[in-house]
Amino acid sequence: QVQLVESGGGLVQAGGSLRLSCVASGSAFSINTMAWYRQTPGNQRELVASIERGGSTLYVDSVKGRFVISRDNVKSTVSLQMDSLKPEDTAVYYCYARSVFYSAPFWGQGTQVTVSS
Description:
Layout: E1 2-7, E2 10-13, E3 18-26, E4 31-39, E5 46-52, E6 57-59, E7 67-72, E8 77-82, E9 91-99, E10 106-107, E11 111-116
Parallel strand pairs: 2-11
Antiparallel strand pairs: 1-3, 3-8, 4-5, 4-9, 5-6, 7-8, 9-10, 9-11
């Protein structure tokens, strides 16, 4: 199993920055994909950014140029640097990990990000 613990959410004004972090434990060595998803009430969880073990990244169009995802394979962490935040970025952000050993992905508990206008 893999356990994910997020930190770094909070309240920020539009134009500000936040950094989310997620630490993986358990079978963290088996993780290939790590990502951040977000969800607002009444909506499906959406992919924000993902990063593979080798470093390749993917971003949803709405955050390109503003968010940067990074990971440390030795420390089993993934981070999301969020700059130029907008009110529409307000959501609960979830850390995601996919392991080569397990068919189902793993999720963190979620951290609230609120951007005020």
